[in-house]
Amino acid sequence: MLKQVVCGVLAALSSAGLASAQSREAQKWDGPFVETATPVVSGNFADLPDVESFVVTRCPGAERHKPSWMKPAPGWDDKASPIDPLAALGVNGREPTPAATLNFQGQSNACGCSPPDTVGAAGATQFVQLVNATSMAVYNKTTGAVISGPSEFRLLWPSGNCRNSTAGDPIVVWDSLASRWVLAQFSTGNGFCVAVSQTSSATGAYNLYEFTTPSFPDYFKIGAWSDAYYVGANESSYSALALNRSAMLSGAAATMVRFTATAPENFLLPASVVGPTAPPAGTPGIFYTFKDDSYHGGGADRLEFWHFAPNFTTPASSTFTLGATLNTTSFTYTVCGFFNLNCIPQGGTAQKVDPVSEWPMWQLQYRNLGAGGQKLVANFTVDVGSDRAGIRWYEINKTGATTYAIANEGTHAPADGRHRWMGSIAMDKIGNIALGYSTSSASEAPSLRYATRGPGDPAGTLQTEAVLQSGGGSQTSSNRWGDYSAVTVDPADDCTFWFTGEYYSANGGNSWTTRIGKFVLPSCLVPVELQKLSIE
Core-most of 95, 109, 313, 397, by most CB within 10 Å? Predict the structure, then answer.
């Protein structure tokens, strides 16, 4: 979340219990509120000038946005945090995580800003990476060579707030059901700018939109669904928004429907469809969050799944309701204390960095496996004991309209003293899972690692991890490490995982750089008729 340094910048519920819960939870949300955005058409991204450096407007002393109602329960003691019960599962030795088959340099700091908020996705023939604040580059998926850019994303707009914005928090999503790119960043005021490609090529023209919000939509994230592009944001309260996808794909005026929380919640991350198969007809958009018994009104540690059913013809008929609550194995919500940004140690410097452990991590990926069922994968950072960061991850089964169940939950925290945070998780077409993340310790610079698992691996475990990029140095002048990284699945084979994140090649105050790599689990490439045998 760039606003730190840059301005502008679950056991499933029964049907009776669910109806009662939805009635109670609906009282916590105001809406729907409605806005319509008029589109502008861009020129080709490939025609924008390459950028070597550009200037952003700074906000000295700004912090990550913390809603005023978020505070620990009375008597809460961070130092009393127990050992995470799932960390003891460790890693499994069934087979090692595969090495990268392509590993190349991404963008470096051209904006003089921090953090980079590195994000990327694979499309039909290209890989697109965005970093603050905001530059975009398009790469060849086979060689890693730059096809176009880096160029300033804002220059797609001919004029106005979006043209003038260097506010950051970039987002890139591949809409797998339409073979289009969805790109976004903050506007100059309270709002965000969205570009939807007119073709499957990221180097071509885009349909451009600016959506406004009543307050700054910090940490906004976008999910591509079959009926809408869904958005979660941290405004003065948490909000959930739906953008008219069909209108944006065609370049027509697009309605935004918005609900906002009126009581303590947590950030809601929207799901993105991955793979070629849409959710069953009529399935509403899915958002999820996690809640801790010490912070969020008591109760058990849990996951919540919310359902957004927008009606873009009659917006007043839109609904936002609780779909299911799943109690989880206990976890400790924050690392180093509540919104403590000075937490993760780094080798060679006393400067510590932010674990961003308060909110779900990018992305919530949804996959319809047909006969294999509907799946979601999710992750967030937890305290595994003694203020050491690890990653709690989930594989969720979804059946019917409102039935969710935890198929797998684990805490990835090998007993090597390293912190693991800034996770991103994805699933391939046969159910293999990959988790990418940053690692660091008091004697080691931040690095990029990843770990995988197959459907036949022991429950709650990942395979022995692999290194995408060893850090050559640490960040010496700021606690704001990037707020997200990205693991996505290549739509060309629906098997290959892509991972991008940040690191330092040498100690520096603001000299971050990024890495991009891809890897694949061999079982996914086995012919369909042999996959069952390979898993067994």
Answer: 109
**Each residue of 398-413: pLDDT tens digit?**
999 899 999 999 999 9
Query: Per residue in 347-364, pLDDT tens?
Result: 999 999 999 999 999 999
| Both structure tokens of 335 | 């690392």
In 179-318, the DSSP E strands lie at: 180-186, 191-197, 206-212, 218-224, 228-234, 238-244, 254-261, 269-273, 285-291, 302-309
Are 60 and 423 in contact by the 8 Å Cβ rule? The answer is no
Which amino acid makes up residue 325?
A: T
Beta strand 319-327 with 302-309 is: antiparallel
Structure tokens belonging to residue 305: 């799944």
In sequence order, what are the beta bridge partners of 241?
A: 231, 258
| 92 Ramachandran zone, left/alpha/beta (phi>0; psi -120 to 50) | beta
Per the CB < 8 A criterion, the answer to whether 306 and 321 are in contact is yes
Q: What are the strands, taking DSSP E only, across 316-413? A: 319-327, 344-346, 349-353, 364-368, 374-383, 389-399, 403-412
10 Å Cβ neighbour count for 224? Answer: 26
Q: Is the pLDDT of residue 368 over 50?
A: yes
**Is the pTM here over 0.85, yes or no?**
yes
Helices (H), 325-439: none
By CB atoms closer than 10 A (0-12, 13-18, 19+), residue 480 is: buried
Q: In 3D, which of 420, 416, 417 has the Cα closest to residue 392?
A: 420
Q: Phi and psi at residue 88, in whole multiples of 5°?
A: -65, -15
Collapsing DSSP to helix, strand or coil, 304 comes out as strand
- In this structure, how many other beta carbons lie within 10 angstroms of the beta carbon of residue 507? 18
**pLDDT exceeding 70 applies to what percent of the chain?**
87
Name residue, tokens 């109690």: 327
* 3-class state of residue 317 by DSSP: helix
Using only C-alpha atoms, what is the Rg of the chain?
21
pLDDT of residue 25 exceeding 90, the answer is no
